[in-house]
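In the design runs reported in the main text, the only information available to the sequence generator was the tokenized backbone. The following block is the verbatim input for one such run; it is reproduced so that readers can re-run the procedure and compare outputs position by position.
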């Protein structure tokens, strides 16, 4: 047997994985395009809905402005792309799951799929919390804090970047329970250790809120407090997970059996 023949069995699985990865990525891109095409026709309407929390707090003689010449077109267009990715997130996560699932143990598959679903729902919940709870309070505070004689006229591109940053910050902040469970699941820490570090977690939540939100106490608190409460929720579920793993001997048996195969 030549050297090329001995290397061929190793190369074929690698190439097949690349082909499958390309197929998964094409499906992701196609799903985003399918959602984006109809959304593009309603891009201006989507932006008007997104700007609602700010417009409701602007004085009657104020409005949003577009500094760049192409901003009235490209800014709603950019929002439509982001919304298309946002709506397509279940398909994206499913393609990721379908790609990595064959290489996981059975007990790992039972754990990761619920975590993917829960992380998606928590991210959506964080975005909804930012839009319906945080934005009215932040924009009410910022418009009221404007000095006398200063008309608040926000650029539409700057507003979109600001809003997307907050969406991303609150979406990630609501992933704290998933991070907590994964840390315990992988054995990097334990529920008892996390309980002892609770004061540090609370301080870290306020520090993160300070960096990810505008420089006001309201938005910082609105991000830090949910992060702390979600940490407590993740700590509770991680305790339940540890108890279930300790009372279920099939997890270790299945893992050793699949390793042998």
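Verbatim output:
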């Amino acid at each position: 047997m030549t050297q090329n023949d001995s290397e061929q069995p190793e190369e074929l699985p690698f190439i097949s994985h690349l082909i499958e990865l390309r197929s998964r990525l094409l499906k992701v891109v196609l799903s985003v395009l399918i959602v984006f095409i109809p959304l593009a026709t309603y891009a201006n309407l989507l932006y008007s809905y997104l700007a609602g929390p700010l417009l409701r707090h602007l004085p009657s003689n104020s409005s949003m402005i577009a500094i760049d010449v192409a901003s009235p077109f490209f800014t709603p267009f950019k929002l439509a792309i982001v919304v298309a990715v946002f709506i397509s997130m279940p398909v994206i996560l499913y393609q990721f799951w379908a790609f990595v699932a064959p290489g996981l143990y059975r007990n790992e598959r039972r754990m990761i799929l619920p975590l993917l679903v829960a992380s998606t729902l928590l991210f959506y919940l964080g975005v909804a919390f930012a839009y319906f709870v945080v934005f009215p309070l932040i924009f009410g505070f910022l418009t009221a804090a404007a000095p006398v004689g200063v008309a608040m006229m926000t650029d539409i591109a700057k507003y979109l970047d600001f809003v997307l940053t907050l969406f991303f910050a609150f979406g990630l902040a609501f992933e704290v329970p998933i991070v907590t469970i994964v840390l315990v699941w992988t054995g990097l820490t334990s529920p008892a250790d996390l309980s002892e570090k609770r004061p540090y977690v609370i301080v870290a939540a306020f520090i993160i809120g300070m960096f990810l939100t505008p420089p006001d106490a309201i938005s910082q608190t609105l991000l830090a407090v949910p992060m702390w409460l979600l940490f407590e929720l993740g700590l509770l579920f991680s305790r339940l997970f540890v108890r279930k793993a300790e009372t279920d001997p099939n997890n270790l048996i299945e893992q050793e059996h699949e390793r042998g195969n």
